[in-house]
């Protein structure tokens, strides 16, 4: 697996494809483009059936077939994007998270055992998240600790202004605030920031639970849903939404307005007669337009 030339995604405006080597007959992202183009391209790569996944995994495990490994990686790149979107609240570039997740995906493919009886996505999600968690933890401390002139003054002078180790008492805080011409609140806030320290995300395996508080991982909400089912459901919902948008785009303006107001706006669903009065036709004519529009859209979903 180490021979696979799957490059990392650039974190800034220029995004190079991570797929210079691919399995036969698989669509690939363009060699150079935006992150949106990359995400759109990986969603064009077909999802494997359970049988196809088993066959490819066995080929890689038994014969070290790199084409099979590439096929497994490429078909799951969309899942890495799906997981990365769940970490948007950390203020990090989604391209960076996808890049780290792709590394986790390749590690998972290398270690996947097809005889266990689980889908690759259920196994890979732990490796993908582990790489993303490590990246987040390494970058979480890179924050702006001094954004104003007063805070910058505090940042560079607070340590030498302290007369002893440990937290300052009220009198010391007052003296430092007066000396540096800042508020006492700003002194306390900066002291808190500078006294912070990094802690492990996971507690060591041999740590006694009575020796200290739980590691941060203990505070994460448990997700009992099988990752493969959650991914398939989310992907199906995204696909149906795209089909709905495409279907509405094929309708004329009046048909589109009728469908939206009759079916897609739960807060103000109008009646056939109300639309008939608005368009100056009979309620039966509105019903016919609605039926024809729904027929066109159903044909798109059934294709």
From TrEMBL:
Pfam families, A to Z: Sigma70_r1_2, Sigma70_r2, Sigma70_r4
Subcellular location, principal: cytoplasm
Residue ranges annotated for the RNA polymerase sigma-70 domain, each copy included: 96-109, 271-297
UniProt subcellular location: Cytoplasm
DNA-binding region: 272-291
Motif extent (Interaction with polymerase core subunit RpoC): 96-99
NCBIfam families: PRK06596.1, rpoH_proteo, sigma70-ECF
Protein family (similarity comment): Belongs to the sigma-70 factor family. RpoH subfamily.
Complex formation: Interacts with the RNA polymerase core enzyme.
Name by which UniProt lists this protein: RNA polymerase sigma factor RpoH
Organism, as annotated: Noviluteimonas caseinilytica
Organism classification: Bacteria, Pseudomonadati, Pseudomonadota, Gammaproteobacteria, Lysobacterales
Gene that produces this protein: rpoH
């Amino acid at each position: 697996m180490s021979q696979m030339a799957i490059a990392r995604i650039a974190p800034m405006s220029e995004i190079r494809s991570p797929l210079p080597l691919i399995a036969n007959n698989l669509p690939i992202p363009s060699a150079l483009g935006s992150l949106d183009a990359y995400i759109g391209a990986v969603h064009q790569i077909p999802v494997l059936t359970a049988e196809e996944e088993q066959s490819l995994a066995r080929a890689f495990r038994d014969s070290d077939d790199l084409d099979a490994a590439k096929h497994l990686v490429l078909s799951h790149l969309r899942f890495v994007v799906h997981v990365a979107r769940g970490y948007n609240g950390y203020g990090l570039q989604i391209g960076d998270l996808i890049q780290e997740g792709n590394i986790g995906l390749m590690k998972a493919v290398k270690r996947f055992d097809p005889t266990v009886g689980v889908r690759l996505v259920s196994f890979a999600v732990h490796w993908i998240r582990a790489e993303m968690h490590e990246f987040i933890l390494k970058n979480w401390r890179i924050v702006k600790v001094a954004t104003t002139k007063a805070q910058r003054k505090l940042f560079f002078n607070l340590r030498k202004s302290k007369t002893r180790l440990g937290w300052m008492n009220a009198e010391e805080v007052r003296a430092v605030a007066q000396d540096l011409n800042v508020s006492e609140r700003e002194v306390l806030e900066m002291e808190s920031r500078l006294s912070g320290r990094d802690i492990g995300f996971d507690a060591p395996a041999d740590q006694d639970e009575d020796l200290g508080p739980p590691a941060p991982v203990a505070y994460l909400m448990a997700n009992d849903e099988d990752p493969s089912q959650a991914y398939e459901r989310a992907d199906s919902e995204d696909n149906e939404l795209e089909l709905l948008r495409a279907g509405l785009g094929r309708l004329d303006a009046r048909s589109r307005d009728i469908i939206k107001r009759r079916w897609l706006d739960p807060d103000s669903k109008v009646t056939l007669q109300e639309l008939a009065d608005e368009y100056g036709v009979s309620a039966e004519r509105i019903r016919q337009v609605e039926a024809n529009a729904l027929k066109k859209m159903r044909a798109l979903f059934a294709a």
